[in-house]
Description:
Blueprint: H1 3-9, H2 11-22, H3 34-51, E1 54-59, E2 66-71, E3 79-85, E4 105-107, E5 116-118, H4 126-141, E6 148-154, H5 164-170, E7 179-182, E8 194-199, E9 201-210, E10 216-217, H6 218-221, H7 228-237, H8 260-267, H9 273-280, H10 293-298, E11 302-310, E12 320-321, E13 324-333, H11 339-352, E14 359-368, E15 371-372, H12 378-391, E16 396-400, H13 406-414, E17 418-420, E18 436-438, H14 439-460
Parallel strand pairs: 3-6, 3-7, 7-17, 8-16
Antiparallel strand pairs: 1-2, 2-6, 4-5, 5-18, 8-15, 9-13, 9-14, 10-12, 11-13
Helix pairs in contact: 1-4, 2-4, 3-4, 4-14, 5-13, 12-14
Amino acid sequence: MSVKQYIQDNKEKFLNELLDLLRIPSVSADPKFKDDVFAAAEFVRASLEKAGADNVELCQTAGYPIVYGEKIINPELPTVLVYGHYDVQPADPYELWDSPPFEPVIKKTERHPEGAIFARGSADDKGQFYMHVKAFEAMMANEDLPCNIKFMIEGEEEVGSEHLDIFVKENKEKLKADVVLVSDTHMISLENPSVTVGLRGLAYMQVEVTGPNRDLHSGTYGGAVGNPINILCKMIASLQDENNHITIPGFYDKVEDYSADYRKALNDAPFDLEAYKKELDIKDVHGEKGYTTIERVGIRPTLDVNGIWGGYTGEGAKTVLPSKAYAKISMRLVPNQDHKEIAKLFEAHFKAIAPDSVKVKVTPHHGGQAAVVSTDTPGYRAADLAIQEAFGKKAIPTREGGSIPICSLFQQELGLDPILLGFGLDTDALHSPNEHYGVKNYYMGIETIALFFKHFKNEASK
C-alpha cells in the first residue's frame, strides 16, 4: 500500500480525530480555559505516540507545556523539525458564530464545495499541525519515512510564545535538525498553490488613558473636564496622517525600500481586487498611499486598533463622563524593525501627544520579529517539488502579513530557515467568528507533507 492510498483509506478516521481535537477549547489567553489547554496538550501527546513517535513527552514550562516527540530512523539521514501550536484564539464574540465555536460542523461553501470544518482553531492551527501527525502516521504505517522527524507543538503561540524562546535556547541539541517545517500560513488557492517566504513582525500594546479620579455626570462636568474616550480617539487618529503613513518619529527608519523589479514580482501573484472587495463587502480598499494591496500586506508596516472601550456600554443610556478609556493597538513590522525598539518608540510618542488633562499608561504585550526565507534552499525546493507532484503546478512564493514570532527565533538560535507550507486560505476567517478550514485542504496537506519528506531527503543530499 502506498502512503497516498493509506491516506485515502483513512480519511474518515483522520477527519474524526481532528474534530475531537477541535472540541477542546484550548484558549491560551483566557485562564478559565487552563484545564482545556492542558487537555489539548495531552491529546497531541497521545496522538504522536499512536502514530509511532518515540520519546514523546510534555515538556513543562512556566506556562503551557510543549509537546515533543521524535523518530530517528538513521542519524545519517536529514532531520525535519515540525513546529505547530495547539492553543487557539478566544472565540468571542460567540453570538456572531453561526454554530458553536467548539462544536465543529462541516458545511459546503463557495470556496470549499467539498465542505469546510467550522470551528475555532480549524485552520489556525489545529487543522494544519495535525496534518503533520497524520502524514507521519501514514509514512510509518507504510514503513516509508524517508527522513528523521522531530515534533515541537506548543500551547502559547496565540499569546506570544512567551516561554518557547527559553525552551529553544536550552534544548538546541534536542531540536537539532536540517530544516523546520511549519504549517501555520495560507496559500493563494488550491488552483494557485503557494509557499510563504516572508512574515511580518509584531508589537502589541495596551494603552490606558485616565482623566478624573472617578466617573462623572456628563452634564455637570461635560465641557469642563477632559473626556478620556474623546482624547484617546484623537490620539489614535493622530497616529496616521492623510496618506495613512504612521506618524511615530523613527518608525520607518529601518524599513527597507524594495526595488521596482521586486515589487513587480510580488504583484505578479494571482490576485483579484474586485473579488477581494466583494468577499469583504467593502466598496474600496484602504491603506498606505503609493502601495498595492499585496504590498501593503506583505512588505509594509501597519498600525491597527484591535479593541477600544471605556465608559458605559450596557443597554439604554447612562450620561457618564468616564474616568478611563482603553485600547489595544498592534503594529505589524517588516524586516529590520525590532519589536522592542518599536514598542519604546510607540510608548514615548503616545505619552508625548497626550494633553495635560489625562494620564497615560502603556503596557507592552507580546511581540516578535519579522522573518524572510530564501527560495534557494533544499527545504524550499523540496516544498516546491512536493506541491508540483500533489497539485500539478509550481509553487508561487508569497509574502504574508501575519506573524509567527518563533520563525525568527529558529533562524537566530537554530540557524534554520522555516519552510512555511500552509494550506489554509486567507478567506478562512482566522481569529474571527466562523473560522473554517477546507476538508480538501486538510487531505491535500497531509499528502503534500508526506511528499515533502521524500523530496527533502533527495534535495538535502545534493
